[in-house]
UniProtKB/TrEMBL annotation:
<feature type="domain" description="HD-GYP">
    <location>
        <begin position="196"/>
        <end position="384"/>
    </location>
</feature>
<dbReference type="Pfam" id="PF13487">
    <property type="entry name" value="HD_5"/>
</dbReference>
<dbReference type="InterPro" id="IPR037522">
    <property type="entry name" value="HD_GYP_dom"/>
</dbReference>
<dbReference type="InterPro" id="IPR003018">
    <property type="entry name" value="GAF"/>
</dbReference>
<protein>
    <submittedName>
        <fullName>HDIG domain-containing protein</fullName>
    </submittedName>
</protein>
<dbReference type="InterPro" id="IPR029016">
    <property type="entry name" value="GAF-like_dom_sf"/>
</dbReference>
<dbReference type="InterPro" id="IPR006675">
    <property type="entry name" value="HDIG_dom"/>
</dbReference>
<dbReference type="Pfam" id="PF01590">
    <property type="entry name" value="GAF"/>
</dbReference>
<dbReference type="InterPro" id="IPR003607">
    <property type="entry name" value="HD/PDEase_dom"/>
</dbReference>
Length: 384
């Protein structure tokens, strides 16, 4: 998902901080090194997942100081250290290092200071021998950089051997430490962002199941609509970020029914005119609920799905009577998924129709109720 919370979290302040730290050391680094540091800093606002980020950061770290191989370790839920990305190592070597080296990595992160391990000291020699044994080649030098952000231990960056056989020195250490401070902030922000996203999605699911629980006849409706809507989105190759927003919009499309009184919502017969008018207010009530949720930039697409999913392509829908492409794409997609699930579901006053009959109805209403191109896409998907 794109970095839709960027402004909300004020990450730009963190960026300034990182660049100021770089500036302190700028005269000691080459322009290429500073450039790499700045490029890596830009990853702060990337929309990559943690798994993708650590791969890039690992490679950049190794290239920056000219390390032959390396590992990026992150602390798991139970604080255990796990290699999340490697450079120049195969899976077996990573497995052996995990087995033999995780506790050393843990103690480095506890101490919180970057260290260079060389063959010069007895303790260092032993450590290098152990790593060399796991990798099955001679290790002459290694840098260990704890990744710490806002006082919390995130993991460790381990860089092994220079290709020319020389040892890592203080300059390498300073360069690596600057890099590691950036890496820690980037990973920490991404983890925080992922947690926020998970929280948001779980709240949306809770809200949609609260709605479904009110009416036993629509149980699971929101979830099914979101799955069907996603099939259309995938088929039309909608961007991943947009797909996620569509999914959330579909889960919440009927949220306004929370505001419809039981005597209308749970009415077991076809609705009379007065009750129908009340029922027709659910998109507007839903949109009012969605408008309360912050940040607004995130909720905009969800608002569109909730507010306009009852609009019809020929302009005969509600609440605004929008027509054609005036209806936002998310709403046009949800309308098809919503109709299919409604037609195939049992209601107290009628039995649900078969999927084949529902598809036939959608085909007949293409261009009237539904976007004809999207209806065609849906029919193609479902006929499979
Ligand atoms: Fe619905």
């Amino acid at each position: 998902m794109a970095n839709i919370y960027t402004k909300h979290l004020r990450w730009e302040n963190i960026l300034v901080d990182v660049y100021e730290k770089q500036a302190e050391n700028r005269d000691q680094f080459t322009s290429e090194e500073v450039e790499t540091l700045i490029e890596v800093g830009a990853l702060l606002s990337s929309d990559l997942r943690v798994e993708e980020l650590v791969e890039i950061l690992m490679e950049q770290a190794a290239l920056l100081v000219g390390a032959e191989t390396g590992l990026l370790w992150l602390a798991g839920e139970q604080r255990q250290m796990t290699p999340m990305a490697s450079y120049g190592l195969d899976g077996d070597a990573v497995g052996l290092l995990l087995k033999q080296f995780a506790s050393n990595i843990d103690s480095v992160t506890v101490r919180g200071k970057p260290i260079v391990v060389t063959t010069g000291s007895r303790e260092g020699s032993g450590l290098l021998e152990n790593v060399g044994y796991a990798l099955n080649y001679t290790v002459s030098s290694m840098v260990l950089l704890p990744l710490v952000s806002k006082g919390s231990r995130l993991g460790c960056l381990q860089l092994i051997n220079k290709p020319d056989g020389s040892q890592f020195g203080n300059r390498d250490l300073r360069l690596c430490a600057t890099f590691a401070s950036q890496v820690a902030v980037i990973i920490d922000n991404r983890i925080l962002f992922d947690k926020q996203e998970k929280l948001m999605i779980s709240l949306i699911r809770a809200l949609s199941s609260a709605l479904d629980a009110r009416d036993p006849y629509t149980k699971g409706h929101s979830e099914r609509v979101s799955q069907l809507a996603l099939l259309i989105a995938e088929k039309i190759e909608m961007e991943q970020e947009q797909q996620e927003l569509l999914q959330q919009a579909a889960l919440l499309h009927d949220v306004g029914k929370i505001g419809i009184r039981d005597s209308v919502l749970l009415d077991t017969g076809p609705l009379d005119e007065e009750k129908w008018q009340i029922m027709k207010s659910h998109p507007v009530i839903g949109a009012q609920i969605i408008q309360q949720i912050q940040p607004k930039s995130v909720m905009e697409k969800i608002y569109d799905g909730v507010m306009y999913h009852q609009e019809k392509y020929d302009g005969s829908g509600y609440p605004c009577g929008l027509r054609g492409k005036e209806i936002p794409l998310v709403a046009r997609i949800i309308a098809i998924a919503d109709a299919f699930d409604a037609i195939t579901s049992d209601r107290p006053y009628r039995k649900g129709k078969s999927p084949r009959e529902a598809l036939e109805e959608i085909r007949k209403c293409a261009g009237k109720h539904f976007d004809p191109q999207l209806a065609e896409v849906f029919l193609a998907i479902m006929s499979r």
